[in-house]
Amino acid sequence: MLSTILRRVGISLATIFGASVFAFILLRVVPGDPARAIAGDMATEDAVAALRADMGLDQNLFVQYWRYMRAVFTGDLGFSYSTGGTVNSLLGDRLPATIELGVLAVIFAIGTAVLFASLAVYSNSRWADRLLRTASSLAMGSPPFWIALLALMVFAVQFGVFPGPEGRLSPGLVPPADITGLYSVDALLAGNIPLMFNALWHLVLPAAIISIGPFAFLSRLYRSQLRSTRRETFVMVARSHGLTKFPVFNRHIAPHGLLSILPAGSLLFADLLTGSLLVEKVFGWPGIGSMTADAIIQKDFAVVQAVLLLAAVLYVVVSLLADVILTTVDPRTRVGAR
Amino acid sequence: MSTEDLLVIENLNKSYSTGFGGRNKTQILHDVSLSVGRGQTLGLVGESGSGKSTTASCVMGLTAVDSGSIRFDGREITGLSKSERRALRSSMQMVFQDPNGSLDPRFTVRELVEEPLIIHGHKDRSERALKVAKTLDLVGLTEKQAERYPHAFSGGQRQRIAIARALVLNPQLVVLDEPVSALDVSIQAQVLNLLAQLQDELSLTYLFIVHDLAVAKLMSHQIAVMHRGKVVEYGTSQEVFEQTSHPYTKALLDAVPGTKQGVGHA
Amino acid sequence: MPVNTEVQRAGQEQSTATPVLEINNLCTNFELPGSTVQAVRDVSFTLCPGQRLAVVGESGSGKSAMAMSLVGLIPPPGKVASGSVKLRGKELVGLGDKEISAIRGKDIGLVFQDPMAGLDPLKTIGSQFVETIRVHQNLSVRQAKELACELLAEVGVNDPRRRIEDYPHQYSGGMRQRVLIAMAIANDPAVVIADEPTTALDVTTQAQVLELLERICDERGNALMMITHNLGIVRQLCDSVNVMYAGRVVEQTSVNALFNEPTHPYTKALLDCMIDPYTTVRGQLPAIPGSPPDLAAAQPGCAFAERCPLGSAEKICHEQRPEAVVLASGAVSRCHFAHELEGAQS
Amino acid sequence: MTLSVASVRATQQRSNPIAVFLKRDIPLSIFLGLFILLVVGLLIGPWLWPLSSDAINLSNVLQAPSAAHPMGTDDTGRDLLARFLDGGRTSVFAGLLIAVIGAVLGCALALMAGSMRGWVDSVFTWLTNSILCFPAILLAMAIAMAIRPGVTAVVIGLSLHSFPWYMRTLRSEVMRLYGQDFIRSTDAIGAHPVRILLRHVLPHLIPTMILQMAAVFGASILSLAALGFLGLGAQPPTAEWGAMITDGQQFFLTGQWWIAGFPGLGLLVAVTLTTLIADRAREVLDPRSDAV
Question: Which chains touch A (3 or more CB pairs under 8 A)?
């Protein structure tokens, strides 16, 4: 078992290396002259030359790459021109907001997917199955940013059930002491319950919208795993021993379904990142998503390079983690054959 | 035409390596030595994991060999290059166990039987059509059936198509890997009779892989019993059945249900 | 409960004991888009306590579908269309999930063909065994585990206390089938239905499993219904046999009569196909011409007609469905010429 | 269970899946019909609908949907139905391009990796994994920044992400096919590996590839619109559904819902239809597969 995990870690490191090279080429080779792009068309030639020297763009590519990766390993992600601060501090401020949103979105996505897929498969009724498939197709097809606008108009403007696009807390409220960076958690830790509810109140709508994409493919995945497990012989055997429908579903079918969600962890992460890129802007949410969108427009290469690297590393870490958990949870891989 | 047997296998060894850098090797074949005379049938009997199918795919060149020699028609074939081995294929063919899986569902029966001819460069269409018709008739399939797709046929008929596909190049050696195990007994009998009749008509040589000793006895002139990669017994089907020497073979014979107690109960 | 098997079996043949299972006019269909496959067509027979019945037939004969219909385990889109299955007088067809589940594993134990896929790979043998026991017997987990260990020992699993904690993938195919048999008899069922229990096993392992089944039936005296296509198994293990073809029971007789004086042409043809290593001649193995019938097509006459050496020429066989005829010897044959065939025998 | 059911079901499945597609499944034909209607409507729209999409007309600004302007007008008086048709064409065209480029490149790589195995396979897989670390939208955004925002940048970015995605899914399908007996039997006959690849492996990939193209087509339309929404996709004045939603964003909250409403609806209908089609088609193709 250990050798498989070591091999997996090796592959993950190779993938991260590959992704970092790819991101590096994307932002240093493809644009031709990044310094001119940053400085803009009106900047004078020597201003651009100074910027180029400062960014070390005049070195050959390998040196640039090596210097960049060395900086990354020492934790220095470079300087953000558009915000005037280091990329590290920028990420430090923005990351928690996206994480808080992402965690809730994951809970919504997995919760609804498992619930509806289980109901559709357990009830074994054709219309429930068709309803689920139509719902997941609709979810697959709904543009998150448009749904966000629609939701804001209906729930915020029309009925005022949820707050408008005012960010993480109602205006005028002081954010809680920074322990985890997640307002709802920090407010709870600080014992400020009304603040926690306010934070959650602001989280629900954007998180629900971000969870639409992941819900689409998770519900399909879970449904198909349940249906294929249901056809297995050991389910028939359990029925033949006298177990009624529910215990068979609960103890022998559902666990296989849950196990199948783990390998989809990395896909889930990629979908959440996509969701945050689009929805944060509509809700004025101070997270990585809106930051990246602005950085792209400002052509802030350092920030975009850092976000690309962060996305790649997190994607690989999530899939590695999912793999390791899967290997330990599944007895077939945890316990060697006798 | 050398006087030696058509197929001679000497000290064949084969192992599969798994794990990082192929550290842990599992030995599949241990010094397997067999030979099949022209127009004869060698029955290769053994339970799953005995190495009989591995021996077959080594003979066909589908899997590489660790050591040992395989001589076909007097010519060593283990070290051949890919193209040399492909040319050799027209004289040695194979029929697989699973009638559903061994035929490409997108090809009609005609295309399936014609493909070997195309592969081995028979350019003339009408000559190919003639050969296909003759082979189909040989295995008892009509012209009308030739236009249909494999899924429209029963297991027994599909095996006939697979046999036609193997015979259209009129090979010398046919490796039969459990050709009837997936079929019902009544259909099995039809295919076994067909194989026997084809062997007599076309003086084919068979390497017949099977786990059922009775089928082996019926079809084979010689039988080799394999157990965990070793040939534990090798002789004419008479000797293997009536003067059984190895205890494993005895165990195999005794294990066949319904033979010990004579006829019925009470 | 050691019972002298010879006496008990001889007596049983003419016994008037009330049957433990009574099947009348059972029909099971598979509703496929565009066609209905009648897998089981009007099957009737009884199973008496301690009887060892073999249900013999080739693929497509409906033997498995019939067996699964008895306990309502037909996978969709199959369903029991009509007929009745009575367990000691209690009707099983049409029972709700709760009622039929109470009978499965308790009164009727089942063993399936593929042991490799028969156990949940994510759970230990122990947890699945305890679950099976506690469904029908209110024992504590510890007591159930204790009973499980005894049963594992009984079926030949050595060192059960340790092995019970292992997972299915740590057992060989043969061992898994033993565990499944142990589970099937855990609640001491009156009937054990084995659906081709050894087809997926090597011949040496098969011999051991058959021996185990025989020992269990001898010791516990339960009735056995063995679904198989292997006539050798029928001869070794069973005392009576139903031969099925295209969804119908074409012959019901004792095993002795089957091998010595078969009455139905299909049974005779099937027996001829059995290879006798010492007498069968290469190339002249009797075969049954043609191929198995299409179960979706209607069967006006006898399904075996066009492959039957006797019936292919007879108009009556192609047009009129033969009724089951009870012969002097007690055998039941569904053939228009049953009497003539029986006459020819004696 | 009995073989009879499996063999009967097999005889119904004709070998040519396209024939099966339409005949047996009414909902599939409906969805396919609607989708073709939508695409044809977008293509021949300009001939049917006379108004041009760029004509600014300050006299009828922010008109609600009416007979004259079925989709109303925007803050500069431009007719929104005309812009909707133009925008739709951009999206559908770009979506098709991305789906096709990715399919061709991805399939070629998958065939090579699946057949040659060894280091070829590991290098291609490494390449694929390295690119697939990034969500498609993030890649397209980076490219938009690196060169110049616009539909070209988006198409490059999304194709860059779609071909490895095809490669990964088709490669496992190629591996599965090579394990089948009918490939080993053709190899045993002495067929050249290339012949096996083209005559036996590729035809079996086509149905799976078509399903994946439908999925990529839908996803690409959404991503194109998303980038338009972020101002990185089609630049004004070209009409594009995503950008139209951004234009209509502020009017959304003040009641003029139709400016952002219709393009979003167009997206929803187009992509949901493709997903439903792919879903039904997979069901008809192999009822037992239940593949995601």
Answer: B, C, D
